[in-house]
UniProtKB/TrEMBL annotation:
Key word Transferase present: yes
EC code: 2.3.2.26
SUPFAM superfamilies: Hect, E3 ligase catalytic domain (SSF56204)
Keyword Transferase applies: yes
Record-annotated HECT domain positions: 1-142
Matching Pfam families: HECT
GO BP of this protein: protein polyubiquitination
PANTHER family: HECT-TYPE E3 UBIQUITIN TRANSFERASE, UBIQUITIN-PROTEIN LIGASE E3C
Protein name, UniProt field: HECT-type E3 ubiquitin transferase
Record's keyword terms, sorted: Transferase, Ubl conjugation pathway
Catalytic-site annotation from UniProt: 134 (glycyl thioester intermediate)
GO terms of molecular function: ubiquitin protein ligase activity
Top-level taxon of the source organism: Eukaryota
Amino acid sequence: RKEYVDLYVNYVFNESVQKPFQDFMQGFLRGCPARNWKMFLPVDLQVVLQGHPTVDWHLLEKNVEYRQYNKSDKTIKDFWNVFHELPEEKKKMFLGFLSGSDRIPVYQLECFRFYIVEPQAKNPDELYPSASTCSLIFYLPR
């Protein structure tokens, strides 16, 4: 029985996925040659591929650009006060809502910018906050 279980486990975890994995690896290495990745330690490679797992939220606030708003407007002050009181998980959810990812790309940690824009509606109470993920614009009604 032990031999059967060992052979079955080997088949499921190794042999059955060998062809799909080889196809994936061949395609991946065609676009990203292995010689370019050898300079990274595994932890650094993970950051390059997935982005930073942690964010300096005060730096993010500092890098925001405002349109139809000033940094001193009550709506902006209230937004940042509430934002900084949120738990880490909710802040990452906001980042996902804004950019489509809960991580900031490795090359943009210090220069990641997004815009907070007033949508200029006749009745702002009828609008919800929205985002344009491609342009990194957060539409925040007054």
